[in-house]
Amino acid sequence: MPRFPAGFELAEALTSAARQLHGTGSPHDAMNAAVQLAVRLLPEAEHAAISEIQRGRLRTLAWTDEVVRFDADSRNGSREPIPDRDRLWTTPVVRTDDSEAVGGADALSGLGLRSALSLRLRADRRRLTVLTVYARKPQAFDDEATRIGRLFTAHVSLALDSATVREQLTEAMRTRDLIGQATGILMERLNIDAAGAFDSLVKASQRENVKLRDLARRIVDANSGASGRGVGER
Q1: DSSP secondary structure, 167-203, as one string
Q2: Which residues pair with 126 in a beta bridge?
Q3: Which pTM was predicted?
Q4: Helix, strand or coil, per DSSP, at residue 230
Q5: pLDDT per position as a tens digit, 27-67
Q6: DSSP single-letter state for residue 111
Q7: How confident is the model at residue 231 (pLDDT cuts 50, 70, 90)?
Q8: Rounded Cα distance, 150 and 142, in Å
Q9: 74-79 contacts: CB < 8 A, separation 24 or more?
Q10: Which residue(s) pair with 47 in the sheet?
Q11: What is the per-residue pLDDT across 143-165, written as a single tens digit (0 to 9) for each?
Q12: % residues pLDDT > 90 (the chain)
């Protein structure tokens, strides 16, 4: 895939990127692929990261290298890696032409990063997910880079949604199987039918304030000889 595509090459590059993104197995894999692709697709991009902002706290979910890995507990935790990040709740793009010119001497410029292009991936009332690319020189990202970035993040958002749904469906199937096993164990242990066993499981979950799947796993593990206590052991 060409590094700085244009015209028909851009369409081909975005199609290739979309295939790679949708071929990933989980949201985590999709985000890791996205940051690597962002550096290859967006002109002048040297680093890329995907960050999540929730309740005023920021953490980096995927990154190309450590310089753009930000976290509340990391060495860069006191820095602000996304200039004007609050604007991203209401606008899809925030572009920083020169971090030193906007008073960022203690933030991006302190890391040797002068330009940033932040593109919103997801936003709801509590959580904001952002893809940001960075460059060491000022005014690195022009209107063309912004256009390519917006096209690319549209593909990233779709891939993340698809991967999330697949992950949730997979987890739902695992949970269903686990609860089914636990129900079968209780049927045999307590000599009750399936409805009674499931009702017993639900009541125990509520009584102990434990998620149904976690209680089911405890019962299955206990029945397999692992440590743990089941409903029938109380």
Answers
A1: HHHHHHHHHHHHHHHHHHHHHHHHT--HHHHHHHHHH
A2: none
A3: 0.73
A4: coil
A5: 999 999 999 999 999 999 999 999 998 877 888 999 999 98
A6: G
A7: very low
A8: 12
A9: 76/111, 79/106, 79/107, 79/108, 79/110, 79/111
A10: 134
A11: 999 999 999 999 999 999 999 88
A12: 48
Instruction: Determine the pLDDT at residue 213.
Output: 86
Tokens read off for 233 = 């052991």
- 129: alpha, beta or left? (left if phi > 0; alpha if psi -120 to 50): beta
Give the position of tokens 């979309």. Answer: 18
* CB burial of residue 163 (10 Å; 0-12, 13-18, 19+): buried
**Helix/strand/coil for 8:** helix
Give the orientation angle of helix 8-22 with respect to helix 27-41, to 10 degrees.
Answer: 160
**Nearest-angstrom CA–CA distance, 210 and 221:** 16
Query: Which among 97, 86, 94, 140 has a CA at the least distance from the CA of 119?
Result: 94
φ, ψ dihedrals at 125, nearest 5°: -70, -20
- Other beta carbons within 10 Å of 47: 22
207: three-class secondary structure by DSSP:
helix
Residue 4's pLDDT is 53
> Looking up tokens 């971090």, which residue turns up?
99
Task: State the amino acid at position 223 in one-letter form.
Answer: N
- Give, as one character, the DSSP assignment of residue 71: B
Helix H or strand E encompassing 118: strand 115-123
Query: Tokens 């990933």 label which residue?
Result: 24
SS3 123: strand
